[in-house]
Amino acid sequence: QVQLEESGGGLVQPGGSLRLSCAASGSISDVYVMGWYRQAPGKQRELVALLSSGGNTNYADSVKGRFTISSDNAGNTVWLQMNSLKPEDTAVYYCNRRDFVSAYAQEFWGQGTQVTVSS
To answer: 21 falls in which pLDDT band (50, 70, 90)?
Structure first.
């Protein structure tokens, strides 16, 4: 089992920055995809950014050029640096990890952290 612990959410003014952190612990695989999704009130959960163990990244069009995902060398922790934040970035941000072991995959979610962008 894998546990994901998130931190770094909060209230920020438009144009400001926040950095989210997600630490994975437990029986983690060295082959994985890890990153962030978000869900705003009344909307479906959507992809924000993902990073694979092979170093590939994937960003939602709405955050390209503003958000950057990165990880430590061990792949235990990922960070989401969010710059030039907009009110439409307001949402609960969820850490997600998919571990690939042999022929199967396991998916894990964090508890979510609130990001509010408002003046």
So the answer is: very high
**Residue closest to 115 by CA, chosen among 85, 83, 82, 90:** 90
The contacts of residue 32 (CB under 8 Å, 6+ apart) are 52, 53, 75, 97, 98, 99, 100
Length of the chain: 119
Judge whether 116 and 103 are in contact, CB under 8 Å.
Answer: no
With contact defined as beta carbons under 8 Å apart, do 13 and 70 qualify?
no
Burial class (CB in 10 A: 0-12, 13-18, 19+), 13: exposed
pLDDT in tens, 70-115: 999 888 999 999 999 999 999 999 999 999 988 889 999 999 999 9
